[in-house]
Amino acid sequence: MEFLTNKNLTITYLLLCLLVFTTSCSESAEYDIVGVWGLTTRTADIPFDVNEDGVFNTNLIQEINCNTLETLTFESNGTVFSGNEFSTSVTYFKDEVTNTYWIDVDCDKDGIISFASEYNVIEDNKIKISQRNYTLNSDTLTTVYENAVKIYNSDLTEIIETKNLTLIYTKQ
Question: Can you tell me the mean pLDDT for 84-111?
Fold first, then answer.
């Protein structure tokens, strides 16, 4: 009878250790996300030279003087809010004769758009905000909007292709 008691205690102890380990891993992922994250990359993987400095970049943040301070702030209570988002209208088009991509950008810096929401850590490296999945990789947080970039023909009358829009935030 004493053997069963010790065996039960051992099993109980192992289960308790497993529970503590699982809980601490979950808290670790949540702790890693807490803080301010700045938008560092906005790309559709098409090189542009919008600022006409002779350097083509796929990262529009390096080419367009909009959204230079966009942030996501994660709180330990499970809330996230954005800040410093400017309304930016970007129209992508392609010159089908030269096979060159172009964009037309309108930055509305008079108003700021922001949001507040809840976030959930669904795996150690997966965060969900408002039904959108983000991937956490060390100090970067990435989300992909599939087929979000609509590329028009030269006269802007027809969508001729789509590209994914990738946003990458870096922990500040």
Answer: 81
Task: In whole angstroms, give the CA distance from residue 72 to residue 165.
Answer: 17
Task: Kindly give the residue spans of alpha helices, DSSP state H, lying in 72-160.
Answer: none
pTM: 0.78
Identify the structural domains of the chain with CATH numbers, from first to last.
34-171 (2.40.128)
Return d(Cα 71, Cα 112) in angstroms, integer.
12
Task: Kindly report, residue by residue over 39-71, the tens digit of the pLDDT.
Answer: 999 999 999 998 889 999 999 988 887 756 789
Torsion sign across C-alpha atoms 81, 82, 84, 85: negative
- φ and ψ of 122, to 5 deg: -95, -20
Rounded CA-CA distance 32/133 in Å is 16
pLDDT band per the 50, 70, 90 thresholds, residue 75:
very high
